[in-house]
Amino acid sequence: MMKKIGFVTLGCKVNIYESNALKNELSDKGYLICEPTSDCDAYIINTCSVTNQADAKSRKMIHRLRQLNRDAILCVMGCYVQTNEEARQIEGVDILVGNGNKKEVISLLEDKFLDRSIEKKMHILDILHTREYEPLEVSTYDHARAFVKIEDGCENFCSYCIIPYARGPVRCKPQQQVLNEIRRIVDAGYQEVVLSGIHTGRYEDQGAKLSDLIERILKEVPKLKRLRLSSIEINEIDDHFLSLLKTSSVLADHLHLPLQSGSDTVLAKMGRKYDTGTFQRKIEEIRKIRPRISITTDVIVGFPYETEEEFIRSKAWIQSLFFSKLHVFPYSVRKGTKAAEMPQISNEVKKKRTKELLLLSEQLEEMYAKQFIGEETEVIFEQPFSQNQMIGHSGNYLQVVCPFDEKALKKNVRVLLKRWIKENIVEGEIIKDF
């Protein structure tokens, strides 16, 4: 009988990509991949450890699946395993794998299926000294947008962040492998590719930087409809990238540029490698090329030493840049990072500041979306939204809902934007055949 494997993926787009790669390989080997149910023969959890809450969510999921079926093989992998000794002590886990060698889960699982008496297996690399890029590739995707991992690792060591300890140093997928993978994706009918990584802007292969890779993709995969970056640091946007943004309509009209704080004092304590002046000047350069581009960002509130005055100035400065969305995170203490040893701000203050910035984000999202009402744009519809609607993204990352039409799913469709609904969701009407 076909073995049934329940998969759970927590955290970032890179985790999603890596899980998809393992799902594809297991499916090719004859396993049935599904959501976790009580009749599964095994569970695989790809964990996250970016915040304390992520750790807690990972722990909760491990315990939940162990209770769901005590006879199933339980495999736990990823950042939580890599960075937390406590993860390795949890009872009832059969296989533990960190980062950089996730593919080993497959052989370890098959060994366990052959001999259930095998004791717990742990394969955890010394990630800080890992230099090899794990060659994972995906053939089918869970979403209409195909995420392609091109890089792993981070060497910034921001004072609040555990990820360099979880993911190790920067390693990159060779350009030719990236190009071959994207060609397969496009030939399979996917309309949009999202380049992703832990620190995507640090991509480099044989002297070629990220902008060089993007130029090759644009030239050598002419059937690609839309190319998007998952995220890029402001100081990694070079003149070459700006020239591509100016000349290519395939590059999405959207950039995610992590900010973290609008206070130079706080940025310095975070260990960020720019100040607000640098950030603002680069945004002005981008908007000279594409005046209505969507720029989204991340902001951490309640970082150690952030005074009320600094927060107020930071909020005002953020508002003046007219981001199209803010991803707001209350600062979370991470054991093993520099910021964990700094004087901490109360949870009440963090909650208050988080609420203020979330409200600002709603206002900015509405302001950005409403300027496009009455205009036409192209939308790739990704999935059903309600009983009789579907939803997708435009190039500038507006979420657009239209009456459901199965023929339009996963297609690049011309749409008239008719009405703003909420945040960055807009109601549209398909106006051309596809």
Topology:
Elements: E1 4-9, H1 13-28, E2 32-34, E3 42-47, H2 52-68, E4 73-78, H3 79-83, E5 95-97, H4 104-114, E6 121-123, E7 145-149, E8 151-152, H5 163-167, E9 171-172, H6 175-187, E10 192-196, E11 204-205, E12 208-209, H7 210-220, E13 226-229, H8 239-247, E14 254-256, H9 264-270, H10 276-289, E15 294-301, H11 308-320, E16 325-330, H12 347-370, E17 376-386, E18 389-394, E19 399-403, E20 412-422, E21 425-430
Parallel strand pairs: 1-2, 1-3, 3-4, 4-5, 5-6, 7-10, 10-13, 14-15, 15-16, 19-21
Antiparallel strand pairs: 8-9, 11-12, 17-18, 17-20, 18-19, 20-21
What does this structure look like?
The chain has 434 residues and is of the alpha/beta class. The protein folds into 4 domains: 122 residues, 3-Layer(aba) Sandwich (Rossmann fold), CATH 3.40.50.12160; 120 residues, Transcription Regulator spoIIAA (2-Layer Sandwich); 118 residues, Transcription Regulator spoIIAA (2-Layer Sandwich), CATH 3.30.750; 55 residues, OB fold (Dihydrolipoamide Acetyltransferase, E2P), CATH 2.40.50. It is 33% helix and 24% strand. It has 12 helices and 21 strands. The strands form 6 sheets. It has a 6-stranded parallel sheet with strand order 2-1-3-4-5-6, with helices on both faces. The chain has a 5-stranded mixed β-barrel with strand order 17-18-19-21-20. The longest helix has 24 residues. The model has no long low-confidence stretch (mean pLDDT 94).
